[in-house]
Automatic annotation (TrEMBL):
The chain crosses the membrane at residues 52-71, 78-100, 120-137, 157-178, 198-219, 240-263, 283-309. Keywords: Membrane, Transmembrane, Transmembrane helix. This is Uncharacterized protein. Coiled coil: none annotated. Residues 319-340 are annotated as: Disordered.
Amino acid sequence: MACVVFVVVEVTVRAYWISGGRWGYTACDRTHLVDPTGGCGADLVETLPLRAGWGAVGVGAVLAVLVVWLVRFPGRYSVAGGGAAAALLLVLSFPLHLLFEIPAALVGRPSDWRDLGARLVLATGGLLFAGLTNACAPRRGAQAAGYQPVPRWTRRWAYVTVALPVAGWAVPHGLWALGVPFGIPQRELDDIHRSLSTGTGVAITLVPPLAGLLVLGLVQRWGQRFPHWLPGLRDRRVPPLLAVVPAGVVALALVTYGILSVAVLVRQVLRGETHWSQVREGWAVTGTLLVFLCWGVALGVTTTGYAIATRRRPERAVRPEQRARSAVRAAGDVADLAGH
């Protein structure tokens, strides 16, 4: 039902935009970032882009059909479609953007709340489709009711995933917020202090490592069973896709961002737009690009370990002749005990 509500709301909003309404619509992706709180002149946009109008309506129709398919005909292909829909919605929400922009907006930085709201709705829809897919997945075997220990290597990678944003992001950004030119030219540090308020700097510094702590759920009991203090969900099993899909999407986004950023830097150096002396002078800034890449790899490995630990294990069928041999063996053991 929640997935149906999500699809209906999204299609209704897009139909409203197609008809000429502009409430909730933003044009900041098509124009220069001027007046982001007002949608960058969204009311002046006459022609709606395909992806925001009829394209989105078409995607909504596909999602509606997928919901019916999942509920009425659960199976391997419908589950694969549901998983793909959940991943697509989470990718479109771009979690990394939300991770940085929402804290900055909360401390007073001018932000495009229409865009942030739309991304939050997409992220919610992705989680809803992940939950529906998990609920409709065919039960092929017995799943242990308790906690399934993750492989030891998964725990090690989880700790690396938690440590990377602390050492590679929070520490340098915290020093920059305090005015310490750690691995960055003084002129760039001055530009940062002129463009960012203290609250924004604190938010940008603390949010990534705090969000990184959520990865511990992939190796702890509360990542497989909801804590007892959660009303309505206490001690219930966490749908694996509810953890695997968001974590996998974030890992993919981190790796993609890291690779693209490093590629851009290398291209600038090869073209002479950036000199090696500048790279060495701002080594801490360059290092953050590698932090994102390594962070994504570590999160992806940890997510894989969680998926392995929580996958459904099919029951092994026992053949009749095996059952008969077991019965004969048990009877022989009883006879031996009686003889002694």
